[in-house]
Structures are given as structure tokens and as C-alpha cells.
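Hi all, posting the design record for the shared folder.

TITLE: backbone redesign
STEP: 1 of 1
STRUCTURE INPUT:
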């Protein structure tokens, strides 16, 4: 089978597709990754074939926009950015498909794959990495600025979504999408986030039932496979310096705010100060060294990156932005988590972890060293939180998410429902 993977987004979006690609290749399939060249070295180091689209500056320009991390503005930026990838994704798929032997595995925002499926009948599977992209009125996601919850009537949630679709989503995404569709002789569409992001053939949710159960009002073609948990293990090794640090004292608190957070200096500075207040060792993880304070307290160390599956079992707590990949690795490691969600799916992920009893949420506007220290002390000192962390970590035993995703992709290629 000829598999074309199309991840659109940051490292947190690309990592799971690398994991799926490696699992598919191990099953004997040819796998190529259509992605911005910013991630080219990651794809090639994993041993997968790269099909670059655009230039690295495209991604850097988008990721470097500070408004990306504001709830409404960031939402508009992402939606507008979707249009710029339509043609490159569509043309890359058309140029690299093999007749009667290709399946496209596309991320939520890779709508060029949906168009290639409609126009050229090249089968596409949609992979969603977080449950917040699936609308439900029985178990609504917690999204910034929206009134949701078990006590909110369904009509009120539907009215909110109708307004968001009409005033924000469709105006930002539809013009470029429908212009391109018109060039190909396809009819215009509406309801981009309501319907169009879901392939009618198969939708795979990369999370387990216990995190976000399948809902009756989700599209019927949705199947869940579990957290992918790919983190470059085997490609990115512990440095001797990091190994020495971990062995030299008590387990540190890990702080990370996402690969797409390009404006984290103040967050890292407050994190380092909180460690000093707690008398705890700390690890600041960021690829942007210019964000790291020039002077760190004793026992606080900066590293660019380390595979979370190997690093987090050596830590005592995890502080992060609420990205689904980071959250799932923290749960697997059994760590209490403090989450400061900014935008997109982060608040919903934090809310779901709060329901599980393994995390607490702090408003990013209140992210100061004293509040960080107080919240972490409460988390670390809670017997119930630590017990829930152990219970949730146990749910990962025996899971085979990448294999399940592969089986669903293969079945979709065969036309099975």
C-alpha cells in the first residue's frame, strides 16, 4: 500500500504522524510524508521519505506570531493559514499517488486531502489528535469563550456554534477553500469545522475511550485508537549532561510550553523562580535558548529537548500548556500536572485531566512564581491526586494505539466500514 501522510501543524502534530508512519512501514507499506520542510530533518532521521511543501519560512512566520496563542485571534490565524496549504497539499497528493494502491492519512487541517479525495477519488482518512475538534452536545468540549457544560442546554450550545461558524470560522476558511474548489469544478461547502474536516470514509481519534468516550452525536465513521505517544525515542538520545543531572539529586519538576510557543521568556523565568521558592530542582525544556533566563537558580537546568517517554519517569511533576501530546506523556508517567492553557484545544485537554483528578489549571495571566509554587505544593502534597495519577498511568498498560491506527487505515483502504 502506498501511504501519504499529511500532518499540518507544529512538532506536536508531526510527531504522531511519524509514529504512525513507522508502524505502517513495519507492516510492509511504502510511507511518504507531505510536510513543511521545517520538519524535514525529523522525517528523514526517522527513515521516512519526505515530500516537502512550501518553505520553512512559511512555518516560522506562522509559529512566530504571538497572536497565535490568543484564543480568538489564534483561532482566526489557524483558519486563515489552512487556505495557504490547500493547493500544495492537493498537488503533492495528486503527483505522488499510485492508482488503486494509495491512501492519504491527513491531519485535521490538511483539507487539500479532502479535495483530492472528492476530485480525484484518492482515498483519505482523517486523523484527529484531540477530542475538541469533534462537536458534541452530550459531552461538549471546554473551549475558550464558550458557555458549555452539563447544565448548559443543547440549544444554547448549538446557537453558540452557529454564531461561531457564521461569524468566525467560515468567513476565515471558506473563501480560499471554495475558490480552489471552484477551479476544480467542485461545489462550494459550508460548515468547515462542523462537517468538512471529517473524511466521510474514516476518522481516527488518537486518544482512548477513558479520556474522551465516543459520543452518539459524533460522525458515525469515527473510531478511537489511543494516544500515539511518539516522542523521537531512539532518534534523540539523552545527553551525558542530562543523565548526570538526573542522577545527581531529587527528581525535578519539568516545565515545557510547547514547540510552537516562541514567546516564553516570562513563563520560563517565573518557573525558575518557583523552583527556588519550593526548594525543588527543575528542568526547563525549550528549543528556543533565547527564552531561557541568563541566570538560573541552583538545581534548575535548561535542555532543548528529550523524549518525554524516557525523561518524565525521572520527574516529580509536569507543568505545561495543555498540548495533547505532552498531557498524554505526563499521564503515562503518572505525574501530577499543572496546566496553563492559552488557546485551541488546550483548555479542553486540561479540563478532561482535571476530571480524571491528575491535573489542576492555572490561568496564564496569573502565572507568577508564588502562585506556581502554591499550586505545585498542593498537587504534590495531595494523596488523592497521586493515587489518581497511579491509576491513570495503569490504563496505558497493554495499549497498542499505533497498531490500531494502522488496522483502521488498512481497513479504510479496503473500503470496509
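Okay, here is what came back for every position:
SEQUENCE:
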Amino acid at each position: 500500500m502506498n501511504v501519504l501522510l499529511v500532518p499540518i501543524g507544529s512538532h506536536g502534530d508531526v510527531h504522531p504522524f511519524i509514529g504512525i508512519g513507522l508502524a505502517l512501514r513495519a507492516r510492509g507499506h511504502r510511507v511518504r510524508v507531505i510536510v513543511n520542510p521545517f520538519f524535514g530533518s525529523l522525517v528523514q532521521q526517522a527513515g521516512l521519505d519526505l515530500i516537502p511543501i512550501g518553505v520553512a519560512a512559511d512555518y516560522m512566520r506562522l509559529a512566530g506570531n504571538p497572536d497565535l496563542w490568543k484564543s480568538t485571534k489564534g483561532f482566526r490565524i489557524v483558519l486563515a493559514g489552512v487556505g495557504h496549504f490547500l493547493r500544495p497539499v492537493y498537488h503533492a497528493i495528486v503527483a505522488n499517488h499510485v492508482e488503486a494502491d494509495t491512501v492519504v492519512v491527513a491531519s485535521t487541517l490538511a483539507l487539500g486531502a479532502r479535495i483530492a479525495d472528492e476530485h480525484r477519488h484518492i482515498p483519505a482518512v482523517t486523523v484527529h489528535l484531540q477530542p475538541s475538534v469533534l462537536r458534541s452536545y452530550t459531552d461538549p468540549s471546554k473551549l475558550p469563550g464558550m458557555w458549555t457544560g452539563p447544565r448548559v442546554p443543547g440549544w444554547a450550545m448549538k446557537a453558540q456554534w452557529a454564531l461561531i461558524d457564521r461569524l468566525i470560522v467560515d468567513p476565515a476558511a471558506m473563501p480560499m477553500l471554495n475558490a480552489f474548489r471552484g477551479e476544480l469544478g467542485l461545489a462550494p461547502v459550508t460548515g468547515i469545522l462542523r462537517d468538512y474536516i471529517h473524511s466521510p470514509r474514516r476518522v481516527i481519534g488518537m486518544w482512548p475511550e477513558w479520556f474522551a468516550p465516543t459520543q452518539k452525536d459524533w460522525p458515525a465513521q469515527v473510531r478511537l485508537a489511543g494516544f500515539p505517544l511518539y516522542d523521537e525515542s531512539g532518534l534523540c538520545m539523552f545527553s551525558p549532561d542530562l543523565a548526570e543531572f538526573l542522577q545527581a539529586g531529587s527528581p525535578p519538576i519539568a516545565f515545557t510550553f510547547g514547540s510552537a510557543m516562541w514567546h516564553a521568556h516570562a513563563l520560563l523565568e517565573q518557573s525558575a523562580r518557583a523552583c527556588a521558592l519550593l526548594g525543588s530542582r527543575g528542568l526547563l525544556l525549550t528549543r528556543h535558548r533565547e527564552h531561557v533566563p541568563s541566570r538560573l537558580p541552583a538545581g534548575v537546568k535548561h535542555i532543548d529537548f528529550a523524549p518525554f517517554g524516557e525523561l518524565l519517569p525521572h520527574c516529580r511533576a509536569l507543568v505545561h500548556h495543555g498540548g495533547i501530546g505532552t498531557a498524554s506523556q505526563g499521564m503515562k508517567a503518572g505525574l501530577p500536572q499543572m496546566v496553563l492553557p492559552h488557546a485551541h484545544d488546550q483548555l479542553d485537554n486540561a479540563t478532561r485531566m482535571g476530571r480524571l483528578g491528575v491535573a489542576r489549571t492555572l490561568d496564564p495571566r496569573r502565572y507568577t512564581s508564588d502562585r506556581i509554587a502554591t499550586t505545585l505544593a498542593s498537587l504534590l502534597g495531595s494523596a488523592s491526586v497521586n493515587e489518581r495519577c497511579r491509576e491513570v498511568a495503569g490504563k496505558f498498560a497493554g495499549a497498542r494505539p499505533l497498531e490500531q491506527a494502522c488496522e483502521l487505515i488498512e481497513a479504510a483502504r479496503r473500503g470496509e466500514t
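COMMENT: The mean pLDDT is 89.
Let me know if anyone wants the other runs.
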